[in-house]
Amino acid sequence: MAGVNYKQDMPPKGGYQPFRVSRHLPNRGPSGTVIMLGGVAVMGFGFYVIKKTNEERRALKREKLNARLALLPLLQAEEDRRMLRSLVAAEEEEAQIMAGVPGWQVGESIYHTDKWIPPHPSQLKNH
């Protein structure tokens, strides 16, 4: 081993080129600001759609209520006619049943007042 010559590897003349040791990543995708602005825009549009939907729902609800209020007098008149027919039928039946009782007045109010009071369900005859 005494006769072996070793040649040491040396840098080239002028030295090696400098190299970066800092982290260098390429830009990929939008920046955080752009993502944030996009999110705000999407949420703003969503709130706008919700507002319009709520306005439409309120308008439909108002229309439904107005339709019901418009029909109320008609329905009340039908109920009044039904009640009157029932009262007339009940009075006719009362006249038939109490025909032999002296001093009986058919259709006399049981409330002893001149004020109109809706009849009790027992007074109504369902036909």
UniProtKB/TrEMBL annotation:
Similarity comment text for this entry: Belongs to the complex I NDUFA13 subunit family.
Membrane-spanning parts: 32-50
Compartment list: Mitochondrion inner membrane
Record keywords, A-Z: Coiled coil, Electron transport, Membrane, Mitochondrion, Mitochondrion inner membrane, Respiratory chain, Transmembrane, Transmembrane helix, Transport
Name this polypeptide is given: NADH dehydrogenase [ubiquinone] 1 alpha subcomplex subunit 13
A GO cellular component entry from the record: mitochondrial inner membrane
Keyword Nuclease: no
PANTHER family: NADH DEHYDROGENASE [UBIQUINONE] 1 ALPHA SUBCOMPLEX SUBUNIT 13, NADH DEHYDROGENASE UBIQUINONE 1 ALPHA SUBCOMPLEX SUBUNIT 13
Biological function: Complex I functions in the transfer of electrons from NADH to the respiratory chain. Accessory subunit of the mitochondrial membrane respiratory chain NADH dehydrogenase (Complex I), that is believed not to be involved in catalysis. Accessory subunit of the mitochondrial membrane respiratory chain NADH dehydrogenase (Complex I), that is believed not to be involved in catalysis. Complex I functions in the transfer of electrons from NADH to the respiratory chain. The immediate electron acceptor for the enzyme is believed to be ubiquinone. Involved in the interferon/all-trans-retinoic acid (IFN/RA) induced cell death. This apoptotic activity is inhibited by interaction with viral IRF1. Prevents the transactivation of STAT3 target genes.
Coiled-coil regions listed: 50-94
Taxonomic superkingdom: Eukaryota
Pfam family, one: GRIM-19
Membrane topology summary: Single-pass membrane protein
Provenance organism: Geodia barretti
Quaternary structure annotation from Swiss-Prot or TrEMBL: Complex I is composed of 45 different subunits. Interacts with CARD15, but not with CARD4. Interacts with STAT3, but not with STAT1, STAT2 and STAT5A. Interacts with OLFM4.
